[in-house]
Design a protein that fits this description.
The radius of gyration is 17 Å and the shape is globular. 37% of the residues lie in helices and 12% in strands. Helix 5 runs parallel beside helix 6 (177-184) and helix 7 packs across helix 8. With 278 residues, the chain is α/β, with parallel strands linked by helices. It has a single domain, classed as TIM Barrel (Alpha-Beta Barrel). The protein is built from nine helices and eight strands.
Length: 278
């Protein structure tokens, strides 16, 4: 089973994608399942994890409808309001939907970098941990110290870092990202997605060698059992096609790792982390 652990769909008319601007020409259009299916078939991707791209419950509902319609969508990482007084009942209601498999606040978009440490946020985070429910960290390197503190405060949290925390690949900058990734990888419930890297490199001229040291560091720190492939399609189109995104990862990993490790990265780890049942 080959799984893309991170992709998006959106419809502009829904109107809640606050981060998306008209100048993002390649992204500023609808992207729906029929647009992605040819790439999935070409690379023998059996299932995907569909991740929210807007901080609204309406977005979660929109994605869940898609997941019920298209069999290749294994489940949805949705958004719920952590600061709502009704979070617990809302969380319990959505958990009853078999396609609701994870939750993600858009931390990188928030004004306060330490938002995750607010008492009114840590409380629902504890509920999520007690339910052993998957949680996605959408962060940049400046957030990683707060991620570490959140994991210390809620040690049982089953979590994954999206897009290897978006290091400054274009600037070839490694620290403090490199040291923080090594430290965070000591948390055995924490995983990392090999996704979203080409958009952190120079969009029009990146090369596989620009990504190699970042990919190799993540695999070294987390091991092949706690990293997973994600395309970040269609956001990746800012810098490369689906073919290029999966191709660069294969060119770096396929000669380095054994078959069992590759099967884990390209599907097994996502299935385990998100508790996918087929």
């Amino acid at each position: 089973m080959r799984i893309d652990s991170h992709q998006h769909f959106w419809k502009l008319s829904r109107g809640d994608y606050s981060w998306m601007k008209p100048e993002m020409k390649v992204l500023y259009r609808d992207y729906m399942p029929q647009d992605l299916e040819p790439s999935l078939k070409r690379h023998k991707i059996d299932k995907t994890v569909l991740v929210q791209a807007a901080p609204t419950v309406a977005e979660t509902d929109f994605l869940l409808e898609i997941a019920e319609t298209y069999d290749f969508v294994a489940g949805v990482v949705g958004w719920l309001d952590f600061e709502s007084e009704d979070f617990q009942s809302l969380f319990e209601r959505y958990r009853r939907n078999r396609k609701f498999i994870g939750i993600r606040p858009m931390l990188e978009e928030l004004a306060d970098d330490d938002w995750i440490l607010r008492p009114q946020v840590l409380e629902p985070l504890q509920l999520i941990a007690e339910a052993d429910f998957p949680f996605d960290f959408l962060v940049k390197p400046r957030h990683l110290s707060y991620v570490a503190k959140a994991l210390e405060a809620v040690p049982g949290l089953r979590a994954v870092i999206d897009h290897i925390a978006k290091p400054e690949i274009m600037a070839r900058k490694f620290e403090p990202w490199k040291s923080m990734i090594r430290e965070l990888a000591q948390h055995k419930n924490l995983y990392c997605k090999l996704s979203g890297m080409v958009t952190e490199a120079r969009h029009d001229s990146w090369k596989p060698e620009d990504l190699r040291p970042y990919i190799e560091h993540v695999v070294e720190c987390f091991g092949p059992d706690r990293v997973m492939y994600g395309s970040d399609w269609p956001v990746c189109l800012l810098a490369g096609s689906y073919d290029q995104v999966i191709g660069v990862l294969e060119s770096i990993l396929n000669l380095r790792l054994d078959r069992a490790s590759l099967e884990a990265i390209y599907g097994g780890n996502a299935a385990h982390f998100y508790k996918l049942k087929f």
